[in-house]
User: Fold this.
Amino acid sequence: MTSSHAFWLAGRQVTGEDTFDVTSPWDGRVVGTVSVPTEAQVEEAVAAAYAVRDEFAATPAHVRAAALDHVSKRLVERTEEIAQLISAENGKPIKWARGEVARAVSVFRFAAEEARRFNGGEAQRLDTDAGGQGRLALTRRFPKGVVLGIAPFNFPLNLCAHKVAPAIAAGAPIILKPAPATPLSGLILGDLLAETELPAGSWSILPVSNDRMPALVQDERLPVISFTGSEKVGYAIMDSVPRKHCTLELGGNGAAVVLADFASDADLDWAATRIATFSNYQGGQSCISVQRVIADASVYDRLLPRIVAAVEAQVTGDPSDASTEVGPLVSEDAAKRVESWVDEAVSAGAKLLAGGKRDGASYAPTVLTEVPADTTIACEEVFGPVLTVRKVDGEAEAFAAVNDSKYGLQAGVFTHDLQAAFRAHRALEVGGVVVGDVPSYRADQMPYGGAKQSGVGREGVRFAMDDYTYERVLVLTGLAL
Assistant:
């Protein structure tokens, strides 16, 4: 694996005075050594982004689109190399890492398409009242300014892409901070962006430590913050800068509801397979992984053993092995936290039906039932390969159980009943309802974000572009309409 020593400052590769090692959570080997920007270099990046903001906003759409197309094509060409890098620094099984690269390819392609059609302007005649005779309003969107993008470790390439691509498409300079545990995947985007003709200063990728972020967050030259991560950190950011625009994609404890009509053997096999896969993919380290199963009493006894069997069939082990489905968590500390939450639940009376064992940074895929409502694992986002299963009586109780959470990111509803699907869409306090599947489905072009304490704003390329821009009206006078 090739080490990356430099970071990207205003479009050029430079080094700082200090470095840190990136290690594999699977075997502890050093994957790469990363240079850390000095305070002066961070200031240079911010100043360059701020200085270029008007120029970049005025950059022709075809220039921005061509750059985004280039990155998308180069990601295709380097798919296997980048997937191996993601797997090495994150511990993600290679099968999921390859899928992540494919998603990033799409994100940049979608952004190129949006760059070509975004901000065409909307005309509105104003002579609907006498005072507006001869007047026409033209509304267009313009960047709010430089974006500070703060990305997490769990999708170290694709969630960096979700910060960078919409900003470039909208003509907003961006400073990207990748997660300290997984900076290499984010830095590799700089390799590809550097091959384009985007203006100097329009993007930087700075692997600064988390404890240095408050100064960047509060810098008035960075009016937009796009953060993906924990609820605690996200709302601390928002509270510290109440006059900035913040897009926060925070936690969840995704629920999969299985209604009474989803009752055939084929239905239950499908539900169990999907639930088992997507409670454990990425080691459960996804905001929309399945954490809670809420099953109607009429199907519960047939569904539960299927779920346990499917969970126990998950292939765990070396993330570089193509057959591995569940790798380690991002660190041993993360696995120990998951272990402590499961142990707490079991001590409080929960029944452990599968898993419940830790080996270093790895935690076995786990199924719990009869989990007390006041345990940590029932209330918080576990961010690990742990699943709870609960029995309810009827649709209304099922939907109430989904809503009995401070989070509201996405929910899955297994049903064939179209009316039930629409009732779920109306009743569930979440950002997205997925019918016939788990809550873990995300198309990268659709609006993605949560309700309640799962965040504010929306990702998904065009929707992020809306968040990064504002409407400005031009009134033309003296027209013969």
